[in-house]
Amino acid sequence: MKKLMLLGGSRYLLPVIEKAHKLGLYVITCDYLPDNIAHKYSDEYLNISIIEKDAVLVAAQNASIDGIMSFACDPGVVTAAYVAEKMGLPFCGSYEAVSILQNKGKFRAFLKENGFNVPEHGSYATEAEALLELERFSFPVIVKPVDSAGSKGVMRADSVEELKKAIAFALEYTHIGRFIIEEFIEKKGCSSDSDSFSDNGIFTYISFSDQRFDVNAKNPYTPAAYSWPPTMDEEMQVVLRNELQRLADLLELKTSIYNIETRVGTNGKPYIMEVSPRGGGNRLAEMLEYASDTDIISNAILAAVGEPYQTLNHPIYNGYWAEVILHSEKNGQFVSLEIDEIIKNNVKEIDLWVKLGDFVDEFNGANNAIGTLVLRFSDKVKLEQTILNIYDYIKVIVE
Length: 399
Known about the structure:
Blueprint: E1 3-7, H1 14-22, E2 26-31, E3 44-47, H2 53-63, E4 67-69, H3 77-87, H4 95-101, H5 104-113, E5 121-124, H6 127-131, E6 141-145, E7 155-157, H7 160-171, E8 179-183, E9 192-199, E10 202-206, E11 210-213, E12 223-228, H8 234-251, E13 256-264, E14 270-276, H9 284-292, H10 296-304, E15 320-326, E16 332-339, E17 347-352, E18 359-360, E19 371-377, H11 380-388, H12 390-393, E20 394-398
Parallel strand pairs: 1-2, 1-4, 2-3
Antiparallel strand pairs: 5-8, 6-7, 6-8, 9-10, 9-13, 11-12, 12-15, 13-14, 15-19, 16-18, 16-20, 17-19
Helix pairs in contact: 1-10, 2-3
């Protein structure tokens, strides 16, 4: 029986564990939080911080693992690459290449050096260092930790005073003490955040989504809903597919699932914003199985342990799908989830992670989600009308 090590322990690992078990694999989960839900479903749990790469390496060697993944868990991706390289295990690319992808400062610099469209940007360790280069930027700007995901620590700044607050906020969420300031790219239509797959260095499956936000949330840059098929111009999708392939060629990437964020600016330019060799949070790969009948998760698992996997092609969608990230706009005790009768026939799945009386936090990052709602529509007009007014139909009641 081959062994798969999964870094992290969130509920986003549950479908990975389930599929790995169906494929006959022994699953080891690893992080420093023994109460995380995924550890209840794995075959073995190791209490080790996933950012301690040498400690994870020793544990992986002792367990004689056959593959390693950090699915929907950004902090573990570089560690997974390190372990895979040291042990000669299959992985998406070299430790060096993955380190570039996983650090927003290094990634922006790499894109610029290689002629990709990239926002004006800078990477810094302190407020003082950043303010010395303030003339490089025009407000508004976005400030982000170089090493976080799920929009944690992300804030827009429209003035110097707001910039100082944004820097302090970003520094709360970085493991390595660095943040980036970058030009705010006003998007045309919706930005995209979706999962994709490369087969031995070739992006055979690239999906785009419409990524949507709750403007009333404490952090309005945390994704609050997604829909497929995308409304991005097909011409821009082609350009982005070609640019993603060029990126894969330059970094000599191999086989993996990827979470990819892109957008088209109002300036008419397409941008690659993030490329992370892991499954995305918010159940994106599961949504693609609904929307395009493609099991990217099983492909990623099989690739990770060196087993044959399915050949994929770019998605063909079987309807109009949306995912709503359930959340509260205030702190308090959860009372109920109310869904209007108007959309009940469109609801295909309710995945609620809290129960009556549980304390929930206001929506300040992906980690504050309390569940997901999967919707299907027969036409794009109905989808668009519903998703634009979703909070008229869905109420999270908190007291």
